[in-house]
Amino acid sequence: MIGKLSKKTVLAGLTRQELRILAASYGESPWRGDQIYEALMHGASDIESMSGLPAAFRKKLGADCETGVPKIKKALRSKLDETVKYLFEYPDGATVEAALMSYKYGRTLCVSTQVGCNMGCVFCASAIGGKLRDLDAGEILGQVYAASLDCGGRIGGVVMMGMGEPLDNYENSVRFIGLVTSPEGLNISARRISLSTCGICDKITRLSQEKYDITLSISLHASDDETRSRLMPVNRAYGIDKLMRVCREYFDETGRRISFEYTLIPGKNDGEDDALRLARLLKKYFEGAPFHVNLIPVNPVEGKFEGGGRGEAQRFRRTLERMGINATVRRTLGADINASCGQLRRSDEQT
Ligand code: SAH
């Protein structure tokens, strides 16, 4: 049943060394652990398919463990660009989305960290229905393995911007970063990993103490508490000033430039006054420090919000620029396959 972490050990969540120890604990030689590690990296979702292992060992392993590598339930492939949107399924029936994006410099996978989400942002499809369960670190890594197998090439970057709030599944998210950056494994550079959060302040502080050079993305989406609390309930717990202070401390501690995401929702947060206030807020807390602002025209969810055009986004951007704040309007990839924001999973549930 979906709703609790599998009691089985998730193999993809173990390091190569831990897999060697696991193999030995079954009375097998440790290099069987290396075999399992290689099979996972090649996208094996079933233990049964690991034909290099003795059948009796596979059977015992299957009773206690699962791979963590999901199966592809659906894959939508854009005709406009090389974007692929996956609906992945785990053995308990839980489904999550991931999106593979191709850029000039390589492929990046947007992964999910939870099945659903408890943060309740009003514009977000993943919030509908709440969180069903956390994903294990190995299940997050399994999305990268499964997508690599499907696309037949190297994935060089990861954004933790799919379903779920990574800092609400802190241990698994950080362990995933350790695994995916491991030189023994996919060896993805931490600098090519972004973690996006709605702003759980104490966890941001904790993250600043981790040793990874990742990029932190903050889903800001408003420049005053009233608007932000209306859009994002998490703001009632922390508030914008606290969030901005913690972000500045994060930069001071890590030296890593923060990226602020601002989803533009027509009539809610996209006015001239919103842009001016945003510029003042950023200047107040990030004087002399680099940061990045990414503007995202909202993706309408179940008819709740009208999508704004890129023209409005450009107007917002120009206002920021007049105030000395550089911003980019996010390029839309996979526009023909609805490649964002939990909508594939919703439509799958409704069919
Ligand atoms: N929970 C994390 C990561 C998942 S959401 C976070 O809040 O950052 C990834 C990004 O997509 C966030 O910036 C989120 O606010 C944004 N998003 C969610 N629904 C959206 C929608 N309908 N249109 C545009 N952006 C959306």
What are the SSEs and their pairings?
Elements: E1 9-10, H1 16-25, H2 31-41, H3 55-64, E2 65-66, E3 71-77, E4 84-89, E5 95-103, E6 106-110, E7 114-115, E8 133-134, H4 137-151, E9 155-160, H5 170-180, E10 193-197, H6 201-207, E11 215-219, H7 225-231, H8 235-238, H9 240-254, E12 258-264, H10 272-286, E13 291-297, H11 310-322, E14 327-329, H12 343-349
Parallel strand pairs: 1-2, 6-9, 9-10, 10-11, 11-12, 12-13, 13-14
Antiparallel strand pairs: 3-4, 4-5, 5-6, 7-8
Helix pairs in contact: 1-2, 4-5, 6-9, 10-11
Q: Care to describe what's here?
A:
The protein contains twelve helices and 14 strands. The chain is α/β, with parallel strands linked by helices and 351 residues long. It has two domains: 9-66, DNA polymerase, domain 1 (Orthogonal Bundle); 71-349, TIM Barrel. It is globular. It starts with 8 loop residues before the first strand and ends with a helix. 36% of the residues lie in helices and 19% in strands. Strands 3-4-5-6-9-10-11-12-13-14 form a ten-stranded mixed β-sheet. Bound molecules: S-adenosyl-L-homocysteine. S-adenosyl-L-homocysteine (SAH) binds at residues 119, 121, 123-124, 161, 165, 196-198, 219, 261, 263, 296, 298-299, 301, 341.
